Amino acid sequence: MRVTLAQMEAFYWTVHLGSAQRAASHLNLAQPTLSLRLRDLQAALGVEVLERSGRGLRPTPEGRALLARVEIIMAEMRAIGARDPAREIAGPIRIGLAEGFAVTCLPPLLAALQEAHPALLPDWTVTTSTALETSLLRDGLDLAVLLNPLGDERLRMIPLGAQPTSWVVPAAWNLTGPVTPRDLWNLPVLSNPPPSAMHRQISGWFATAGIAPTRLITCNSVAIIAELVAAGMGAGLLPVRMADRFLGGGMALLPTMPEVENGRLYAAHHMGADDAKVTAVIRTTERVLQSIGYHRA
């Protein structure tokens, strides 16, 4: 029995997506068909290349060695399929953006993509970074801009730089800085629910004083949290560029002690899935962030 390209492709996507079901969906195959290809591959090689891990699959030591060789073959197949070195950037792509990032950056990013790649058809998803990371791992997205991702070995993370972040409070509170965790710990604090990046940032800041907020109110929308702060409902930890639009309109930005650790932005996609569309969106995102000075507080 010989090894076929279809078998290697089934193995490649099963490893990167973590299950035969997700790999079959990605390849538009019935799951029994994909499972048969995996069995035939293992029979042809005479070794087990996959093993159970919870409800999914992961490569065995022999499988990890095989994966390194299969990734080279898959990259060559993508190169052969390209019509020219530049490759026309066209067709659908599913892009996720962390909400606090999207509020400021989606309009200029969309405009830049329309100008540079008018045949590209982006499908946008805007939610919390942790929800995007989960969707990416389940093959629900091709690319996502994540804030302080949890990280997974199946994902490639490309650093995009800092997201300046600050505490903001209702202007009616008449607080002046720098404020400490003990100044805010007994006041209402608005946050995305755990294990979101915002919740981790807030918990980490209060933990510097060995305390936790006693009146934590969770909401899954960063934009709504900003509106609630401006309406006087509580303090929040927001991207500075997002908070700027509310300053003087019910919200005040506070210096703190200790300083808030800025978020870190990453473009994330599956290992080996760096096709022309993904690369084009990442490069355009980098240009937009530079042009609007997003990383400057």
Structure explained in plain terms:
The strands form 3 sheets. The protein has a 5-stranded mixed β-sheet, with helices on both faces. A 5-stranded mixed β-sheet has the order 9-8-10-7-11, with helices on both faces. A two-stranded antiparallel ribbon has the order 1-2. 43% of the residues lie in helices and 23% in strands. The radius of gyration is 23 Å and the shape is elongated. α1 packs across α3, α1 (5-17) crosses α4 (61-81) and α2 packs across α3. The chain is of the alpha/beta class and 297 residues long.
Average per-residue pLDDT, rounded, comes to: 91
Strand ordering within the main sheet: 4-3-5-12-6
**Helical segment count:** 11
Find the structural class using helix and strand composition.
Answer: alpha/beta
Q: Percent range for helical residues?
A: 40-55%
What portion of the residues fall into strands of 2 or more residues?
15-25%
Show the helix and strand layout.
Blueprint: H1 5-17, H2 20-26, H3 31-45, E1 50-53, E2 56-59, H4 61-81, E3 91-98, H5 99-116, E4 120-127, H6 129-137, E5 143-147, E6 155-163, E7 165-170, H7 181-184, E8 188-191, H8 197-207, E9 215-218, H9 222-230, E10 235-239, H10 240-243, E11 251-254, E12 263-270, H11 276-291
Parallel strand pairs: 3-4, 3-5, 8-9, 8-10
Antiparallel strand pairs: 1-2, 5-12, 6-12, 7-10, 7-11
Helix pairs in contact: 1-2, 1-3, 1-4, 2-3, 5-11
